[in-house]
Write a structure and sequence with these properties.
18 strands, 3-stranded antiparallel sheet, 8-stranded mixed sheet, single chain
Length: about 220
C-alpha cells in the first residue's frame, strides 16, 4: 500500500534483473536493476496504467533504408519506426479485432520479418500490405524495426503514408534512384552503413501522401 518493495538476490555483475507488475492483463517492466551492493537501487519505478481501446497512437518518425539490387535483383529494405502513445492509458485492442496500430508498406514487398525493438517480434505481423501491432502499447515512445525485400525488376517504389509523419529519413544506396517527393530534401553528405555509401533525404510526409522513388533504367519484369 505504501508503494515500496524490496528484493534480495545474489550480486552478479553479469546478470540482468528486471521487475515486472501486471495490471488488467498487461505486463509492465522496470528498467534494469542496479547490481552494485554498495549502491542499492532505491529510485526504481514500475509504472502501470489503466487500459483504453481508443487511446491514440501516433507515428512520430520513419527511417527507411533501401539497398542496391542484390545478385538476384531484389532490394533489401530496413525500416525503423518511432510511435508514441501520449495519453494516460495503455492502448489495447478493441472489440473489433486484435489490431492496436498499423501502417502500410509496399504491396509487392515479400520476405517480411520484424526486427529487434521495444516490442517483441511476435507483437508485429504482416496482414496483406499492412504491418500491424497486436500487443498493448503503454504510454510513451516505442521503436519498431522491420525488414522486407522488393522484387527484382521493380522500377518504382511507393510507400503510402496514411497518417502524418513529422520526420522521415530516406537512405538510398542506388546512385540512379530519384526521389519524387518535394517535401523531402536531399542532404549535403552521404551516410555510411557497414562500409556502404547511402544518399539521404529528410523531411516530413503528410497524411494521404505517397513516398515515391524511381529507379531509372529498370524494366518492369512483370510477375516474379
Amino acid at each position: 500500500r505504501s508503494g515500496r518493495f524490496s528484493f534480495d538476490f545474489p550480486t552478479d555483475t553479469s546478470a540482468l534483473h528486471l521487475l515486472t507488475a501486471r495490471l488488467a492483463g498487461v505486463q509492465y517492466f522496470s528498467e534494469p536493476v542496479g547490481t552494485n551492493p554498495s549502491r542499492p537501487d532505491t529510485s526504481l519505478v514500475i509504472a502501470v496504467y489503466d487500459t483504453s481501446s481508443t487511446a491514440s497512437v501516433s507515428l512520430d518518425a520513419r527511417h527507411i533504408v533501401v539497398s542496391a539490387p542484390g545478385e538476384d535483383g531484389s532490394r533489401n529494405v530496413v525500416e525503423l519506426i518511432s510511435i508514441a502513445n501520449r495519453e494516460a492509458a495503455t492502448r489495447v485492442p478493441g472489440d473489433n479485432g486484435a489490431v492496436v496500430w498499423w501502417l502500410r508498406i509496399p504491396e509487392n514487398a515479400f520476405g517480411f520479418a520484424a526486427g529487434e525493438g521495444d516490442l517483441s517480434a511476435g507483437a508485429i505481423e504482416r496482414h496483406g500490405d499492412s504491418v500491424v501491432v497486436i500487443a498493448p502499447i503503454a504510454p510513451g515512445e516505442r521503436q519498431l524495426a522491420m525488414e522486407y525485400l522488393l522484387p527484382p525488376g521493380i522500377a518504382r517504389l511507393a510507400i503510402p503514408f496514411d497518417e502524418r509523419s513529422a520526420l522521415v529519413n530516406l537512405l538510398l544506396e542506388d546512385e540512379r534512384a530519384r526521389v519524387a517527393v518535394p517535401s523531402l530534401e536531399p542532404a549535403d553528405s552521404t551516410a555510411l552503413i557497414q562500409g556502404r555509401e547511402f544518399r539521404r533525404w529528410s523531411g516530413s510526409m503528410a497524411a494521404g501522401s505517397v513516398l515515391t522513388v524511381e529507379f531509372p533504367g529498370i524494366r518492369p519484369s512483370g510477375r516474379w
